[in-house]
Description:
The protein is mostly helical. It has two domains: 1-39, no CATH class; 54-117, no CATH class. The protein has five helices and four strands; from the N terminus they run E-E-H-H-H-H-H-E-E. The strands form two sheets. It has a two-stranded antiparallel sheet. A two-stranded antiparallel sheet has the order 3-4. Helix 2 runs parallel beside helix 5. The longest helix has 15 residues, at 91-105. The protein is elongated, with a radius of gyration of 17 Å.
Amino acid sequence: MWRTNLMPRGDGAFYLYLHAEMRSTAGVGVGDTVSVELRVDDAYRGGPTHEVPTSFQAMLNANPTAALNWERLTPSRRKEILRYFAGLKSERALERNVDKALRVLGGESERFMARDWVDGR
């Protein structure tokens, strides 16, 4: 038995990531079709989240559309974005990515964090 997470795809569906050790043990490769059995791990806890950057919160406060779309994101998507912000190496990179996040949350169609965003989602 393996433990892994389902990742929301954004349209109600989920991705199931099978890491290299799982694929190797199962004798399958990337792109192969597999059958799986899923069980909920009732002991799972989501873990810590990162703080919302002050600049990002200020921009959300000033943009009601972006703020509403931020609240509409799944908790895991918000957590993913905050983790991404926390891992950036420079203030300039944070500023650039906060600006991009606000654009997509505000409704602009653009790629952000390897996803196509449309209408704030």
